[in-house]
Amino acid sequence: MCTGKCSRFVGFALLPLGFLCIIANILLIFPDGQTKYTDHITLQVWLMGGILGGGIMVSHILSIRAGGKGCCGEGCCGNRCRPPLNTMFRSIISSLFGALGSFYCVVVAGIGLNDGPLCNIGTIEEPRWRYYLKGLNTTYLTNQTSWNECVEPKNIVLWNITLFSILLGLGCLEFGLCAVQVVNALFGVMCGDCRKKEKVNSGGNTSANTGPY
Fold first, then answer.
1. Which of 79, 97, 127, 182 lies at a C-alpha separation of 20 to 30 Å from 86?
2. What is the per-residue DSSP string for 26-47?
3. Can you tell me where the transmembrane regions are (predicted)?
4. Domains of the chain: which residue ranges?
């Protein structure tokens, strides 16, 4: 696959993934879809792994023009196009920045899953907000009976598990795509891009078209 086409594919793939990360993080701010618990949100939610890491930092990779002509610039020679080094350098830096953001998203989501949510283990009249599930000797993920200790927010454990798992999966996928783009950009530096298209005019002569693919 052309380095430019690969770059464009990565850009189009990362855009919806980043959007989904942002949505998942926003939903974590409103447990069970309610706004009254925003004062008792898990720390990992406020670290904004999905919004800052998997969303904004990953979407920054689009600055490599992955949605347009890819990472290819001017200057075609023969059957390949060698973009300016500064363009490819920006592509590599943007990809590494995106990989860092997705890694941040994965770490925050993983810690959020490990620690469990902040929940009220007392009563509605006398609340006791604790990271109750974090202190268990066994993992709460496989011990669903421990979920009942969280009085409110309702369904907070399942809510956090579902959304943090989504962020974890999306972050891993984003990290893989960013890594692919780093390798792709390096190949672009060494081998150039292959955007040449040939067309035969009415006189039977062949001419090169080095325009956008």
1. 79
2. HHHHSGGG-STTTTS--HHHHT
3. 12-31, 43-62, 92-113, 156-189
4. 3-209
